[in-house]
């Protein structure tokens, strides 16, 4: 009798072990599957090129104030939003540094540091920072791309964007220009192009820069340049 009880006990124990192993195996399989899915999702996200679009200034920092009272921060944001739309339509993943009228933090220096941090942490294929220019001589006009002096990739991107922007800025004679003093260019670890879309100190250009039609045209031309750069690598 005792022998039979022992045998039954052993059988029950074996069945419990088998059930536990099976459950553990299923859990391990599911866990591995989930991990693989997560990894795949991460890879998928970067199968598309990533571009950061930076709308300069914001909040209490209006940037340049146009002869028509236009605020640079508002013009920058409008063009940046259109640029995001055009790039996404062409299968580019876009991250914005700001999507409303506020800046990232209250202080100007802190705001720039946050932008640099966001860019460096995300390691985009390219960053385009949208700005407007100003000069004491009202006759000066035209769009111009700036890049960090020691970045070959940024130089290539800036030259391409400068070329495509001329389809909109048809009277512009400016060329892409190297710079080693702008904070955003010096402190970032990836190719960055600062795109000065026009002069708010020039009345004719300032009036165009506040119109939806011209903002969209500029954004589309910049997007064309970004795509050409990405495809050239």
TrEMBL record:
PROSITE patterns, sorted: PROKAR_LIPOPROTEIN
UniProt key word 4Fe-4S: no
Gene3D superfamilies with a match to the protein in the record: Zn-dependent exopeptidases
Coiled-coil intervals, chain numbering: none
GO MF term list: N-acetylmuramoyl-L-alanine amidase activity
Keywords noted in UniProt: Hydrolase
One Gene Ontology CC term in the entry: outer membrane-bounded periplasmic space
CDD domains on file: MurNAc-LAA
GO biological process: peptidoglycan catabolic process
InterPro entries: MurNAc-LAA_cat, N-acetylmuramoyl_amidase_3
Sequence ranges assigned to domain MurNAc-LAA in this UniProt record: 116-227
Protein name: N-acetylmuramoyl-L-alanine amidase
Lineage: Bacteria, Bacillati, Bacillota, Clostridia, Lachnospirales
């Amino acid at each position: 009798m005792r022998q039979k009880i022992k045998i039954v006990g052993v059988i029950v124990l074996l069945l419990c072990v088998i059930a536990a192993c099976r459950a553990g195996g299923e859990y391990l399989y599911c866990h591995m599957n989930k991990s693989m899915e997560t990894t795949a999702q991460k890879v998928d996200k970067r199968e598309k090129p990533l571009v950061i679009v930076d709308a300069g200034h914001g909040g209490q920092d209006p940037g340049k104030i146009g002869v028509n009272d236009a605020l640079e921060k508002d013009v920058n944001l409008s063009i940046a939003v259109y640029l995001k739309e055009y790039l996404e339509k062409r299968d580019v993943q876009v991250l914005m540094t700001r999507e409303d009228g506020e800046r990232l933090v209250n202080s100007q220096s802190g705001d720039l540091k946050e932008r640099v941090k966001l860019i460096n942490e995300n390691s985009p294929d390219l960053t385009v920072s949208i700005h407007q220019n100003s000069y004491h001589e009202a006759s000066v006009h035209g769009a111009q791309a700036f890049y960090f002096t020691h970045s070959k990739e940024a130089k290539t991107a800036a030259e391409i964007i400068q070329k495509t922007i001329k389809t909109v800025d048809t009277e512009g004679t400016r060329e892409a220009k190297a710079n080693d003093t702008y904070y955003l260019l010096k402190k970032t670890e990836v190719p960055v192009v600062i795109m000065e879309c026009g002069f708010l100190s020039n009345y004719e250009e300032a009036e165009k820069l506040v119109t939806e039609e011209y903002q969209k045209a500029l954004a589309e031309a910049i997007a064309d340049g970004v795509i050409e750069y990405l495809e050239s690598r």
